[in-house]
Amino acid sequence: MRGTARDLIGQAEATLAAAGVASARLEARLLLAHALGAEPASLLLAATTVLDAPALPALLARRAAREPLALILGRREFWSLDLAVSPATLIPRPDTETLIEAALAARPDRGAVRRILDLGTGTGCLLLAALGEFPAAWGLGVDVAPAAATLASGNAARLGLAARAAFLCADWAAPIAGRFDLILANPPYIESAAIAGLMPEVARYEPRRALDGGADGLDAYRCIIAALPRLLAPDGVAVLELGAGQADAVAGLARRAGLVPLAPRADLAGIARALILATNPPAAAGRGEKTARAKKHLASRCETSSVPSHGSNRRPGDGVPASGVIAGPGTGAQVSASPGSAPRDVA
Ligand SMILES: C[S@@+](CC[C@H](N)C(=O)[O-])C[C@H]1O[C@@H](n2cnc3c(N)ncnc32)[C@H](O)[C@@H]1O
What we know:
Radius of gyration: 22 Å
Oligomer: single chain
CATH topology of the largest domain: Rossmann fold
Strand content: 15-25%
Bound molecules: S-adenosylmethionine
Distance between the termini: 41 Å
């Protein structure tokens, strides 16, 4: 396509609007800038300059087919971090930043947070944002998708956080031993039957494993919450993202696992978005047979892999995977993880 920036943006806007893209003008400008390899702001100065943009039609066709803008650009900002994104995992959402706000509110003692675990790390957005805020911390990001773990590892390297982050391909926390001061998770929580009705950008382009929370949307919470009592340090907190309307159900699962849910934090739309879970205060600890039975039931449903004990050659509180290199489930992908060393993908 050839024309002045103003004309090209106008044509691109018309194409996108006809395809049902909501912010057609803004996206038209971003796509033209991407096609030219230029900064979007520079187009304002070049409104009447004639430009050649041979890459623009293909980019417009992708967006008109409702491929997410972030996937076309290959980037998305989260908590002021510039992250690479890919079809391997969810594109980070602004709502998810509520988890970082909640973590900062729950752990104002920033220097005391030393070990962070991020379950379902995806791009690594939560872990990397948290490492930026808790300067003394080392973090482990876990994802079942090898390509997501590799993407997150690359993001850590680009942001200069590789020395404090490691990534592991695993089924939630099954192979992890040790305890963490802060555990973050944005699990898949959409009810299976609702996925087909989501906007095309999500239903067609984001991986089902990042969305699908099972029949009631709570499958992943059951697995994650079952593991939290053995993973949280005594003063540790877990912060879980919630789907709209899930706060009571997830808080109920947490209570039955012996955890203490605090008031959820709302996102900018006023939706309860981040649930903070603490370990039992001593007075409330050991609620007896019923709690123990509930924990055992949850654990047996969710953790089929053997969980290494804390007892052998690791201290409780080490907060590291039981093995230095752990194979991804059925994938052959391996990611090594050890505090203080850069993540090493050996797939
Ligand atoms: C909703 S996305 C969240 C990604 C990222 N943390 C964020 O907030 O944008 C959920 C992530 O969990 C991962 N996941 C799904 N099932 C998993 C499992 N059994 N074990 C570990 N990760 C899993 C998906 O691959 C996906 O990257």
